[in-house]
Structures are given as structure tokens and as C-alpha cells.
Write a structure and sequence with these properties.
Layout lengths: L26 E9 L6 E6 L6 E4 L1 E6 L2 E9 L4 E9 L4 E4 L4 E2 L9 E4 L12 E5 L19 E2 L2 E2 L1 E2 L10 H4 L3 E2 L4 H6 L1 H7 L3 E4 L3 E2 L10 E5 L5 H14 L3 E6 L61 H9 L4 H6 L7 E4 L14 H15 L4 E4 L16 E4 H11 L22 H12 L4 H4 L3 E2 L17 H13 L3 E5 L30 H15 L7 E8 L2 E8 L2 E8 L5 E5 L22 E3 L5 E5 L4 E7 L2
Helix pairs in contact: 8-9, 11-12
Length: 634
């Protein structure tokens, strides 16, 4: 590759687009930069207004800090405008898209994209989320604890754990009916702790009335579980979080309910038999499900304890999202005033062998939510490529396993989270390369408008995965790199409760990642806490880590380097999963920098660098180590 190509850059930030969120018919200036001495004769902006290819010559706007900046104007004559660049040299034309530079004409898959009149939840790109599994975080009110034998679910009794610090019981031991006493009052009491850690947004796993510890088997969408403190506890928590500058999003499954839900009520355990669809053929709720005349019914993935909701019912659409007093709107309004929704199993929502309604329903749901709060965040559970829902007007982000969590975990040596489910794939001994990492990340991001990049929910641990640090095969020094890497990606970073405390757990079932928060340990002096606290503080204080451009500087063998840069500063993160020391070349001039600003990184680790050419430095990288350093942009 020609060396100057490493400097070519444009993106959707305000540094390269005059207005990243333009209005319809607005004229927008597009910028592209490269090294000033690049052997370029012309730069052309390629777009397709009204379906017709248009090639606009870009003019030199300025020369600054070793770069030449080209500009051209695009008119937002449509709600969505796509473009890429032709860079013309003596003997070649280079084509530049969000994903890569090629010498062949690309298709439109990875074009740069601007959206007219798009309303972005602008707080998300600056957010550090803290995901809480409420039953296991903190017991703030002993009087509302579940006691042993208080009720049964599917024939199994509740179990009150005698001590907070006991391990979570396996499914075969407790059937998700082991209770430690965590509640919303406990979360509210720990707001000072969250604030000190650097948390700016809280994501709660389900809190609505439900028999299990995980609460995904909801009984009533319209009330908070009394063992979590009830509706008033949520109103109080939301108010307290907002007073402390934090956002709050809640988790919900609107694809299916449990069999004991008030609308279904199969076995009449929680509600009278006269209530619900299963025992009342003439009930309104009968239309909410796929129930046959013989009372057989469709269950999500054929699981009979999870009856699927039937969105051919207009009444169901009203009560879930359309009406002003619907489920989704109720909790967005005062006194609860939540700041968004996380949708469980969004990948399979309203999709089964009977109906395929997802593409119809999701835009309606989004519009309904945004009508109450335009800055509300719509977060969807999806583990794979879901770019079709990330083009504006539907989801703001998936749980970003595909472009973050699955990538990071595999780079650190785990089998891919989905591939390991198949016996023919789980034992393949392949060590993921840095080039794989680059391609995986960019194939996710480069399909999206940049305003959606900035809303990505970046995570690698959650209630649905084992904790990465609990895996003995993961090198502890590489774990540091995973956290740094997560915080370097555009969008929000999400910390799963207890990761900062090096919480215990096991990795062979979901219950192993749901241990109670180890408040009795002096973990705030530990390495994990200090690592996450430092990254959260950096993200809060430095715009480069929230609104800055992103550039991948190096991706060879098993060493990966990524940068974020904005105005007068840049941050560079280097992550190695190599078994040996090595030396890499970092083209810092492509950021407008020359050398690291200090001789140690931001965690006190020595940085050994030497000049190598006019544009880059050589950096010595030790085996399994990660580095994060700052550079001044001249």
C-alpha cells in the first residue's frame, strides 16, 4: 500500500461534515483530508441525488499541520444521502468508503451516509452505562425480601439465601428462584458509589412483577415487582438518578409473556381463573396470543412456558405501544420518566412461522417512543448483523455483541459466543488475528450512518454471557486491553455490575454471571476498579473519546491499535495477544501527531518508541500487554 493512503480520512463528525445532523434541503459541506504531499491530482465526491450518479470535484480548502483538506457541498434533497470519494492519481483511481480504500469500484454497502431530520439521542455517545441485575446488586429494604417457600413457580419453591456473599445457585438447584434480596432501594442507596465510579447511565434488567429472580417471566407490565419496592421505588430511583446527572433505561420483553402473566394466566396461580386468555375463550386477551380452539398455543421457540404475543391484534398494539397509557409510554412519562428501553429478544420479535411483522412494527414502536421523548434510547437485543434496523428511525443500537463483545472475547482467546454452540465449531483451535478484528469491527460500523456509530452500546459482559475475567484461559493482562478497547469504540461503554469488583463466578451457565455484588470486599483499591474508573473519567473529560474521529492504526498478527482524535488531542490504544514481544509501526502523523505526550502511558506503563520515518514511530510492545497513551495534535 502507498504510505500516503494511511492518512486519507473523512467521517461523520463535525470535523468532516459541517452539520452531522442536517435538515432536509440543507447544504452540507463534506471534507476529506490526507498528507499534504500525497501524489493526488483530483478528488471527486460521488453521490446519487434522485437516483442519478453525480461526480463533484472537490476543491482544496486549506493546508494545515501537514494535511491538505478538500471540500465539496452536498444538498440534502432526500432524507438519506450516500456518498464516497474518488481519489485520482497518475496511474490509479482509489475509491474510499467508510470501510476501506480500494482500486476497484465499490458498491454502496459501505458508503458514507447522512440522514436529514434525524434526531439522535445525543447523550449516548458520552455515556458510561452500568448494567444492573437488580436482585443481585444491593438489598436496601429487608422488609420486601422473598422468603423461602413464599410461593412456587412450575412446582419449585422460592429459596431465600441466608447470606449475601453466597454463590448464585445453579439452575438445577434453584430454577431461578434463589433470592438474595436486591431491590431498587438498594440501587438508590448506591448512587454515590456509581457516581464516583464514573457511571452516567444505568440499565436495569427487568423489574416488573414476576416470580423469578431474573424477572423475564413477567406477570404484569404495568407494575414494578413489590419485592423490588413497587412503582414508588422506581419513581424515587429515577428522580434520584436524574438529580445526579444519570440516565435510566429499563428492560422488557414484548415478544412473549410467561404462562402466569395476567393476560394469559394458564394455571391461575397469581390471578383468578376468570382473568386472562387461556381459560376464557371470549376474553379480549385471547387475541393477544396464538391460541387454537383446543387451547393449544404457540410458544416462543416452542417453549410452552413462553406463549408468543400475536401482533395481528390491533388491541395488543394499542396496549403495548400505541395508546397514551400503553406499556411503553407509561414508564417514559412522569413520575417514572425513564430515558429509554432495552428490548429483549428483539432479533426474533414478531417473527415466527405464522406471521412476519417485525419490519412493520419496529418503526411504529420507535415512533411511539420518540413521540414521548425524542431523546429516548432504543436498545435492542441482537447478537448478529442487524444493520437493516440501524439506518435511522428504528433502533438506536443493538446490544453490540457483533461489532464489539463477540470480537473482543474471541481476540482474547475464547470461542465465538455463537459458534461455540455447535459441536463442530466449538473446538476449532483458531487464534483470531488483528486483521480479523479490524474487519469484524468495520463490517459492522461501515454499514451504518455515522450518527448511529455514535449510539452503539459497546459491551463484552452481560447477564447473558459468562464474565470474561472468570475464564481462566483469558490472560489477566489482556483483560485490561479488552476494557480499554471497549472504551475506545464510538458510542457508549457498558460495564456489567461487579466487573469492576473482580466479582466471582463460573463460566458454564448463565447463573455463574449473576453472583451478588461483593460489597464486603475492599475492591475499590483493586486493579479492575481502577481500570474502569480511569477509563470512565477519561471518557467524561476528553471529547476525543466521546465525539472524536476513530482510526485503526495497526492490525497485524495479534497486535491491534486504534485511535480517537478531536481538535488538539488524540488517544491511541494498543492491544497485544501475542506470546512474544514485538515492534510495530504507528502512523501518528495520520492523526496530526508526532510522538506520545509522555514516556509512560495513562496507567504508568513505560512506552518505548523511536522515530521510523516522516509519518510514524516504532513502538515496542510486550507480550500480552496493552497501552493507552495521549498525543498532542500540533
Amino acid at each position: 500500500m502507498e504510505l500516503w493512503l494511511e492518512s486519507v480520512h473523512s467521517d461523520g463528525t463535525a470535523a468532516f461534515v459541517s452539520n452531522p445532523m442536517p435538515t432536509l434541503l440543507e447544504d452540507v459541506t463534506i471534507r476529506l483530508r490526507m498528507y499534504e504531499d500525497a501524489p493526488v491530482k483530483h478528488v471527486i465526491l460521488r453521490s446519487m441525488p434522485n437516483g442519478m450518479e453525480r461526480l463533484d470535484d472537490m476543491h482544496v480548502a486549506k493546508k494545515e499541520n501537514g494535511f491538505v483538506y478538500y471540500e465539496a457541498v452536498l444538498r440534502m434533497n432526500e432524507k438519506r444521502i450516500q456518498y464516497h470519494f474518488y481519489i485520482v492519481c497518475e496511474n490509479a483511481v482509489y475509491f474510499y468508503t467508510q470501510k476501506e480504500i480500494t482500486t476497484y469500484l465499490p458498491d454502496h454497502t459501505y458508503d458514507f451516509v447522512l440522514l436529514a431530520d434525524h434526531v439522535q439521542p445525543q447523550w449516548v455517545k458520552e455515556a458510561v452505562f452500568y448494567q444492573i441485575f437488580p436482585e443481585r446488586f444491593c438489598n436496601g429494604d429487608l422488609s420486601n425480601d422473598v422468603y423461602s417457600g413464599e410461593y412456587t413457580q412450575n412446582g419449585h419453591p422460592t429459596i431465600q439465601m441466608e447470606q449475601w456473599d453466597l454463590p448464585a445457585l445453579r439452575y438445577e438447584q434453584a430454577y431461578c428462584l434463589d433470592f438474595f434480596g436486591g431491590d431498587l432501594q438498594g440501587i438508590q442507596q448506591k448512587i454515590p458509589y456509581l457516581k464516583e465510579l464514573g457511571v452516567t447511565a444505568v440499565y436495569l434488567n427487568p423489574i416488573f412483577f414476576a416470580p423469578s429472580s431474573h424477572k423475564y417471566d413477567c406477570l404484569d407490565y404495568f407494575h414494578v415487582d413489590p419485592h423490588f419496592g413497587g412503582d414508588d421505588a422506581l419513581a424515587n430511583l429515577s428522580a434520584a438518578l436524574h438529580e445526579n446527572g444519570m440516565k435510566l433505561i429499563l428492560d422488557i420483553s414484548i415478544n412473549h409473556t410467561g404462562i402466569a402473566h395476567k393476560w394469559f394466566n394458564r394455571d391461575s396461580i397469581w390471578f383468578d381463573k376468570s382473568i386472562g386468555a387461556y381459560n376464557n375463550p371470549d376474553s379480549l386477551e385471547r387475541k393477544y396470543y396464538f391460541i387454537e380452539e383446543d387451547n393449544s398455543y404457540h410458544g416462543w421457540f416452542n417453549v410452552d412456558t413462553m406463549p408468543t404475543l400475536n401482533y395481528t391484534s390491533e388491541e395488543l398494539r394499542d396496549i403495548i405501544y400505541r395508546s397514551e397509557d400503553s406499556v411503553l409510554k407509561k414508564w417514559l412519562k412522569p413520575p417514572y420518566s425513564i430515558d429509554g428501553w432495552r428490548f429483549d429478544v428483539a432479533d426474533t420479535f414478531a417473527r415466527n412461522d405464522r406471521v412476519q411483522l417485525a419490519d412493520e412494527l419496529w418503526p411504529q414502536i420507535s415512533q411511539s417512543i420518540k413521540s414521548v421523548n425524542p431523546q429516548a434510547y432504543i436498545l435492542a437485543e441482537h447478537w448478529g448483523d442487524c444493520s437493516q434496523y440501524l439506518q435511522g428511525g428504528v433502533w438506536d443500537s443493538p446490544m453490540n455483541y457483533f461489532g464489539c463483545g463477540r470480537v473482543i472475547r474471541q481476540f482474547l482467546g475464547e470461542p465465538d459466543l455463537f459458534m461455540q454452540k455447535h459441536p463442530a465449531l466449538q473446538n476449532v483451535n483458531y487464534k483470531m488475528t488483528a486483521a480479523d478484528v479490524k474487519n469484524r469491527i468495520m463490517e459492522h460500523l461501515a454499514k451504518l450512518p455515522y450518527v448511529i456509530w455514535e449510539n452503539q452500546f459497546n459491551l463484552f459482559d452481560s447477564h447473558d454471557t459468562s464474565r470474561l475475567h472468570n475464564n481462566p484461559k483469558v490472560h489477566p493482562d489482556e483483560y485490561r486491553g479488552a476494557v480499554m478497547f471497549q472504551f475506545m469504540l464510538p458510542g457508549a461503554a457498558s460495564v456489567y455490575y461487579g466487573d469492576e469488583a473482580d466479582i466471582d463466578g463460573y463460566i458454564d451457565s448463565m447463573e455463574g454471571c449473576r453472583y451478588p455484588m461483593p460489597w464486603n470486599n475492599d475492591f475499590q483499591k483493586g486493579e479492575h476498579y481502577q481500570l474502569i474508573h480511569t477509563m470512565a473519567q477519561l471518557k467524561a473529560k476528553h471529547p476525543a473519546l466521546s465525539r472524536g474521529s476513530m482510526k485503526i492504526l495497526y492490525a497485524r498478527d495479534h497486535v491491534f491499535a486504534i485511535a480517537r482524535f478531536w481538535e488538539q488531542e488524540a488517544f491511541v490504544c494498543v492491544v497485544s495477544t501475542e506470546d512474544i514481544d514485538c515492534t510495530i509501526r504507528l502512523p501518528l502523523a495520520a492523526l496530526g501527531a508526532q510522538m506520545p505526550s509522555e514516556t509512560t502511558d495513562l496507567f504508568g506503563k513505560e512506552i518505548v518508541v523511536n522515530p521510523c520515518d516522516a509519518y510514524g514511530i516504532f513502538m515496542q510492545v510486550k507480550a500480552h500487554q496493552s497501552y493507552l497513551f495521549r498525543c498532542d495534535i500540533l
